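The passage that follows is intended for readers who have already worked through the single-chain material. We present the inputs for a multi-component assembly, then the predicted structure in tokenized form, and finally a short commentary. You are encouraged to pause after the input and sketch how you expect the pieces to fit together before reading on.
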Amino acid sequence: MLGMTKKETVLIGAHFMNGDVACAEGAIAAGCRFFAGYPITPATEIAEHLSQRMPEIGGIYIQMEDEIGSIAAVIGASYTGLKAMTATSGPGFSLMQENIGLAVMTEAPCVIVDVMRGGPSTGQPTLPGQQDVMQAKWGSHGDYEIIALAPSSVQEMFDLTVEAFNLSETYRVPTILLADEIVAHMWEKVVIPPAEKMKIVNRKKPNVPPEKYMPFMPDDDLVPPMACFGDGFSFHATGLTHDEHGYPQTQSSEVQQRLVRRLCDKIRKNADKIIRVEEVMLEDADVVVLAYGIVARAALSAVRKAREEGIKAGLLRPITLWPFPEKNVAKIAKQAKAIVVAEMNCGQLVREVERSAKETPVVFLSKLGEDPHTPMEILEAIRRNI
Amino acid sequence: MVEEMVHPLSKYLREAMMPHIWCSGCGNGIILNCFIQAIDELQIDLNKLVVVSGIGCIGRAAGYTNVNSFHTTHGRPIAFATGVKLANPELDVVIISGDGDLFAIGGNHFIHAARRNIGVKVICANNFNYGMTGGQQGPTTPLEALTTTTPYGNIEHPFNLVHLAAASGATFVARWTTLHARRLTQSIVKLLQKEGFCFIEVVTPCPEIFGRHNKMRTGLEMMEWFKKASVVEHFSDPAKAEITSEKIVVGEFVDIEKPSYEKLLHEKIAQINTKAGELVKEYAS
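Having made your guess, compare it with the prediction:
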């Protein structure tokens, strides 16, 4: 396909493809060799593409009986040493939540792609939404941290899938690619660099003999090295609260605190290393537009147009939605007169912006069940808040 | 000086996890014992063995076994094990879990894993109820049985697990009670050697939680029921393999040859692939 010979594992060069395919190719480039999924609009093309590509490169594709089975199989493959991914949309993402918690608790590196459509429930399968932002952070029970990235282009569907694997392997945390239907179905140019020019991260392996290995004993970065089934390390892992040996400690408040605080802290204390934002013309901005995913494209046009009109407007685009870039928002809030937040939901990430912006007024532009914001709509909001 | 006595099978147990959580009179220890006897008899490479369990009393068996082990969420051990087996087909992947975990909340994974014929091995402890949560009705609770959620008698028809497994496509299907420890061990030996999806149901006493409501207050009384009611009917029709107060049909019901999912998958990958990936090479060697 796409002019590739079967001898090549990773596509390189410039291609014209849709976001779902770019995501699938990004996974392959990142070293993913296991995909388990269940068909769902608008993420199905990821599964279809990987059903063709995985066998070509010696990887595994399996269609499971549901999304619960898909994420469980992904965690199993991850524990057996493969980089593993699943892809879904809102309804499937809801079904996966319990086992996303299991991946958090057992520190299984894995990537979950959620191509957001309109919800709640079955909602609007073929229309775009950004309604799963809070679910990505809070969907499973208990206290935990995950990482979520929001691509704005087909190129970023590729790049951020690679990044999602790298972060997941670095921090042993499920990482979510929070795409929207438009970015997933849009066709654009994608440039894939040769393998030697790509940064690929693999999980830390234990550097102690098996008899000394403690599967949940963290290093200084709060992340424990990870042995895999069949590596010669005989170890136990459980979704129960567990000590550094992996043994259940269901009655110990000390172990619960040590474990759960570490699971949160390994992300919170590394947030500065994890978080990426795009900042456009923020230096002197009076009005800042904050948008992510496909909406950020219209926001950028609006900001440029405002500048042409002499309005000091700027764009803050969180690429990392979770952990939320609160320092970046707090910083611009000190200089800006207003922050305009544009989202395709009833108000989700705007809550984080309000929390971080403190006294600075935050204006919310909501879209639901239709095309995303036009540049003109955002421009008018900029004009109103100057 | 007295030499310290070490149990010949203690290397198979994580002694740091003892004492176990199981009640007196519970049959789970017998099931774990039979499993360990089987892996000892086969001298299975313990580095290549992965034991997976779900939630429930028997779910702790994975942690007690001193091999690669994983205690999943409720109902998901088969789906998790599917990922393990496909990621490394050289591993022996055994699921030890309960009837509620495998056939109520996890029922969908069971029938589809059997249909695909993925080469994972399932040992199900059937104690007729949800023991860990205090004895509620489950998918195997007999009609009219009393549980904490069927105080007027159970009106739901129970699953016949061996019939379900056979109909779903398993290549090996057996049922024993914990009274049949020797024969259970021999069936586990077979299960571990067979290709494809294999299933053993072990009817096990739960006197503290199930038996107390149903006129069998001790493990011994439950074992006496098994002794009185069990009839060995090898290769009889699993659809007719009943479990009633009068009769428990036990034996090996299915033992057929069928290529496993992972074998077909890796053959397909090898066909498609001119430059076989690492996984394929490993599997072929």
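Commentary: The first strand of chain B starts at residue 49 and ends at 53. The CA atoms of residues 90 and 282 of chain B lie 8 Å apart. How closely did your sketch match?
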